[in-house]
Write a structure and sequence with these properties.
mainly beta, Neuraminidase, 4-stranded antiparallel sheet, 1 helix, 4% helix
Length: 398
């Protein structure tokens, strides 16, 4: 099938689906979920979508890599990762290749990847090859493509000692031209599980996240900071305005006007009226890069964490699925759309399958793909300790 005929078929499929609805589009060859707030799916130059690694229901890392063909609405397996990994980052490079970095290689977090921790996918050969060694073992970090084609990897979790982990407080930069990693400066605050987004002026905003305070314990952060790749030999980190509420497992989206929308998060705690809330946050905030400050946006209709947000070609933001931090038991079907101009939310028809910690991508025809994720976990599972995953995928037609 030629690229032209493939595009026409994809457009026909999109037209056939009712606007504002989700429809099923086959299943992943291997079910998985991706708990990190960073992107887990990338759209390749040919329009296909790649997802790599992830976790099974026992939180074991996987090597499986899958491709989604939006023209046929079908999935296929492609070259496997060199190492199994979860809580890694997946970044499309400017030349069309894909960088996968860091992650956990063991169920209990004891097997991190340091040397040879990153690898590159060649979409033409459909093979993976290692990059030069990363400087640090890290997972639950952020990865952001810079305007100069390099990739900024920041924060995450690494070994504190043989018994515990701690948040990483520095960044490193991958250069595709040399296939090597270099120091990216010391962050203002160590953190993990944070989203990082590129601003329109080429800087990178890092938003909230978690800070380890004990073995298996953490506190959510409201602190945010900016990375400027043009200042200094390694770029420069500077603090910027703090979130109005600390957040972890939230989402951040750069809007068409250059501001940044942040939604949800799983930091239960004392509210402003001194009542206690164990639930995920329903509040939203917007960051203004010109002033470095956050202001409250209209609350979402539902609180959620481990959800996904996608900036639509219309400039609106689609928020999909998620779960509640009080129990982490079920995946939500609910979906809602934010209009940045009106500052309002509008619920749309929900997903076919409720899910959280899944992969999303906007397709070249404007549809939005949601794949994999957790359906049931915690007390809702039929087998204690084993999360119920879904291999299903579906697309939203705006």
């Amino acid at each position: 099938m030629t690229m032209a005929s493939s595009a026409l078929r994809s457009a026909a499929i999109a037209t056939a689906a009712a606007s504002g609805t989700f429809s099923a589009v086959g299943s992943l060859p291997t079910p998985a979920f991706w708990a990190a707030p960073t992107d887990s799916a990338v759209v390749l130059a040919n329009g296909q979508v790649l997802v790599a690694g992830g976790e099974d229901g026992l939180r074991n890392p996987q090597t499986a890599v899958s491709l989604f063909d939006p023209a046929a609405n079908t999935w296929s397996a492609t070259g496997s990762l060199l190492w199994p990994r979860r809580l890694h980052s997946t970044t499309k490079l400017a030349d069309g290749r894909v960088l996968v970095a860091g992650g956990v290689g063991g169920q209990d977090g004891s097997a991190l990847y340091g040397n040879g921790a990153a690898e590159i996918y060649d979409p033409t050969a459909k093979t993976w090859s290692p990059t030069g060694s990363m400087m640090a073992q890290r997972y639950a970090h952020s990865a952001t493509l810079l305007a100069n084609g390099k990739v900024l990897v920041a924060g995450g979790l690494g070994f504190r000692d043989q018994h515990s982990t701690a948040a990483v407080g520095f960044a490193e930069i991958y250069d595709p031209a040399t296939n090597q990693w270099t120091f990216g400066g010391n962050m203002t605050d160590a953190r993990f599980g944070h989203p990082a987004v590129a601003l329109h002026d080429g800087r990178v905003l890092v938003v909230g996240g978690g800070l380890t305070v004990g073995d298996g314990q953490y506190s959510s952060l409201g602190f945010c900071e900016i990375y400027d790749p043009t200042v200094g030999a390694n770029g420069t980190w500077t603090p910027t305005g703090s979130l109005q509420w600390p957040r972890k497992s939230h989402q951040a989206t750069t809007l068409a006007d250059g501001t940044v929308l942040v939604t949800g998060g799983d930091d239960p705690g004392v509210l402003t009226d001194w009542t206690y809330s164990p639930y995920s946050q329903f509040g939203a905030e917007r960051y203004n890069p010109a002033t470095g400050t956050w202001t409250a946006a209209t609350d979402m209709p539902w609180g959620r964490s481990h959800h996904r947000t996608v900036l639509l070609s219309s400039g609106k933001v689609l928020v999909i699925g998620g779960t509640d931090a009080s129990t982490f038991d079920i995946g939500y079907q609910n979906a809602t759309i934010f209009d940045p101009v009106a500052g309002s939310w509008t619920d749309t028809i929900g997903t076919v399958t409720g899910r959280w910690a899944f992969a999303t991508a906007e397709l070249t025809d404007g549809r939005v793909l949601a794949a994999g994720g957790i359906v049931l976990s915690g007390a809702a599972t039929p087998t204690p300790g084993v999360s119920v995953l879904t291999a299903t995928a579906e697309v939203f037609t705006p």
